[in-house]
Design goal:
By secondary structure, this protein is of the alpha+beta class. The chain contains 23 helices and 12 strands. Among the domains are: 150 residues, Beta Polymerase, domain 2 (2-Layer Sandwich); 127 residues, no CATH class; 43 residues, no CATH class. The strands form 3 sheets. Strands 1-10-9-2-3-6-5-4 form an 8-stranded mixed sheet. Strands 7-8 form a two-stranded antiparallel ribbon. It has a two-stranded parallel sheet with strand order 11-12. Helix 7 runs antiparallel to helix 10, helix 18 packs across helix 22 and helix 19 packs antiparallel against helix 20.
C-alpha cells in the first residue's frame, strides 16, 4: 500500500452525479456542517466519479455520532447504531451516514467487537480496499486520500487497506467483493492482496446466506461477470457456494452445436454476452443465464458409435430441479425462483420454436417472462453456434404479438362444455387447452366453430345425457 497521504484540491463535475441524488446529499452535508461537524462523500461514489461512472448512491461519513445525527434530521433510522451507522431519509431518498470510527478486533468474521469514534484517517484505515477509502468534501472541493487510493485507481489495481490478511479475516465477504470489483471495474489485483486470500482458513466464516446471495447478484450484474466467477473458482470459494456450477467444468459438448467448448466455457461466454449485449437485463435473466445448462453434467451420455453424439437428454427438466434447489438454498424470493426455473426448463423448447404449432407458440409468447426467454435464446446462440434463424423467427412472432397487446378470450370453457352435455372431469383442462390453441391458430373463431371442434375430439369424459 502506498504510504502517501494527501489532501488535494479536486473539483468534481456535479453532472457526474444524478442531480436529484446529489442535491439531497449536499443538503445532508450542509446541515451537518452548519451544526459544527465534518462530513464527506465516501467510498464507491467517489471512486466511480473519478472513473467517469455515474454513481447510483452517495454514502456520507461524518464526525457526528448517530445520536447527534438524529437531532439534526427529521427522518433517521439507526440501522447499526453501535457501529456508527444510520440512514437519513431526505424527501423519500435514503442515504447511509456513518460516523468516523476505529474498529476493535472482529471476533465473528463480520462485526468488530466494539468501535471507537475517531477521525477521517483512522476511518479510512479500517475500510476494505484503497479505492473505496477516498473522501471528498463537496463544499470545499477537497479530496482526502490517506491510503493511496487515487494512485490505485490510476493504475487500475485493487489493493487491500493495510494488512490484507487482517482485512479479509475481519470480514470474509471482502474476498467475494474483491472478485466483484475485478469484474465490475476491469481492474487487476495487487499480488499481496491476492495471495492473502489463500491464507484465510475458512473463507465463508460469518457470512450469512443473504449477504452471500446479494454479492453474487451484484457479480452477475457487472460488466464482466465471468471474470469474477472464474476468480471465485480459482480461489476455491465457488465450490462451497455453487458446487452444481463447478460440475460444468470439463463436461464436453457436441462440437457441431458447441464449437466453443465445454459446458463451463459456454456458460461463461453466455454471461459476458448478456452483460455486453442485453441492455435491459435483470437479475432473473442473469440467474437463468448462469443456470440454463446446470442440468447437463448429471444427464450427459457419451456416443455409443461413430454415428452418435454427446447428448444431454432431459437436461432442461433436471436443470429446473437443480435451479430450484440452488436458489432456494440462497433464499431468493419464491417469485424469482419460479421465473428462473421456468425459463431454465423452457429454454430447449424455445430452441425448437419453429416446430411448435402457432396456437401453442402464442401461449408461450404471452407468458410474462417470454422476453427474458427470447433474450436467453439469443445469448445461448451467440455463445455457441451463432445461427440466429430461430431467434429471428421468435423475435418476429414476439413483435407481432406486442401489436395485438393481448390474446383473445377463450371461447371454450368449462361452463360451455357442461352446456354441451359433458360431465365435469379432469379431462376438461386438456380439452379447454386444445380448444384455445386451435382458436389461436385460426381453426375456428366463433361459438359454432368451437363446438364443432370439441365434437371432433375423442373426449374421454362421459356425457350427462
Amino acid at each position: 500500500m502506498s504510504e502517501k497521504s494527501q489532501i488535494l484540491n479536486y473539483k468534481f463535475d456535479i453532472n457526474a452525479f444524478s442531480p436529484d441524488v446529489y442535491s439531497k446529499a449536499i443538503y445532508i452535508i450542509d446541515k451537518l456542517k452548519q451544526n459544527g461537524h465534518v462530513a464527506f462523500f465516501v467510498g464507491g461514489c467517489v471512486r466511480d466519479v473519478l472513473m467517469g461512472i455515474q454513481p447510483h448512491e452517495i454514502d456520507i461519513t461524518t464526525s457526528a455520532t448517530p445520536e447527534l445525527i438524529k437531532t439534526i434530521f427529521e427522518k433517521v433510522y439507526l440501522v447499526g447504531e453501535k457501529f456508527g451507522v444510520c440512514v437519513v431519509n431526505v424527501d423519500g431518498k435514503d442515504f447511509e451516514v456513518s460516523t468516523f470510527r476505529k474498529d476493535a478486533p472482529y471476533e465473528d468474521g463480520r462485526h468488530p467487537s466494539f468501535v471507537t469514534f475517531s477521525n477521517p484517517k483512522e476511518d479510512a484505515m479500517r475500510r476494505d480496499f484503497t479505492i473505496n477509502a477516498l473522501f471528498w468534501e463537496p463544499m470545499e472541493s477537497k479530496l482526502y486520500d490517506y491510503v493511496g487510493g487515487l494512485d490505485d485507481i490510476h493504475d487500475a489495481v485493487i489493493r487491500a487497506v493495510g494488512n490484507p490478511v487482517e482485512r479479509f479475516e475481519e470480514d470474509r465477504l471482502r474476498i467475494i467483493r474483491c472478485a466483484r470489483f475485478i469484474s465490475q471495474l476491469n481492474f487487476s489485483v495487487d499480488r499481496e492482496t491476492y495471495e492473502a486470500i489463500f491464507k484465510i482458513k475458512d473463507p465463508l466464516k460469518g457470512i450469512s446466506v443473504e449477504r452471500l446471495r446479494d454479492e453474487l447478484e451484484k457479480i452477475l450484474m457487472t460488466q464482466y461477470p465471468s471474470v469474477a466467477v472464474n476468480v471465485l473458482y480459482e480461489i476455491g470459494i465457488l465450490k462451497k457456494i455453487l458446487p452444481e456450477l463447478c460440475a460444468m467444468r470439463d463436461v464436453p459438448q457436441p462440437p457441431e452445436f458447441h464449437p466453443e467448448g465445454d459446458v463451463w466455457t459456454h456458460t461463461m461466454l453466455s454471461l459476458d454476452v448478456a452483460a455486453k449485449e442485453i441492455r435491459d437485463r435483470d437479475i432473473i435473466l442473469m440467474w437463468a443465464v448462469l443456470l440454463h445448462d446446470v442440468g447437463k453434467p448429471p444427464t450427459i451420455t457419451m456416443p455409443t458409435d461413430k454415428n452418435d453424439r454427446i447428448r444431454f437428454n432431459g437436461h432442461d427438466v433436471e436443470g429446473e430441479k437443480l435451479t430450484r434447489k440452488i436458489l432456494t438454498r440462497l433464499r431468493l424470493p419464491n417469485k424469482i425462483i419460479d421465473d428462473v426455473a421456468y425459463i431454465v426448463k423452457d429454454h430447449m423448447r424455445i430452441g425448437k420454436a419453429q416446430e411448435i404449432k402457432k396456437g401453442r407458440l402464442k401461449l408461450i409468447i404471452a407468458n410474462a417472462v417470454f422476453k427474458k426467454e427470447l433474450d436467453l435464446n439469443y445469448i445461448d446462440i451467440m455463445a455457441s453456434h451463432k445461427d440466429l434463424s430461430t431467434w429471428d423467427f421468435l423475435k418476429k412472432e414476439y413483435e407481432e404479438f406486442k401489436k395485438q397487446q393481448q390474446l383473445p378470450k377463450a371461447i371454450i370453457d368449462g361452463e360451455m362444455l357442461i352446456k354441451m352435455g359433458y360431465k365435469p372431469s379432469p379431462a376438461f383442462s386438456g380439452i379447454i387447452d386444445k380448444a384455445y390453441e386451435a382458436q389461436l391458430e385460426g381453426i375456428f373463431s366463433d361459438e359454432q366453430g368451437a363446438k364443432k371442434f370439441v365434437k371432433s375430439l375423442k373426449i374421454k369424459t362421459e356425457s350427462k345425457k
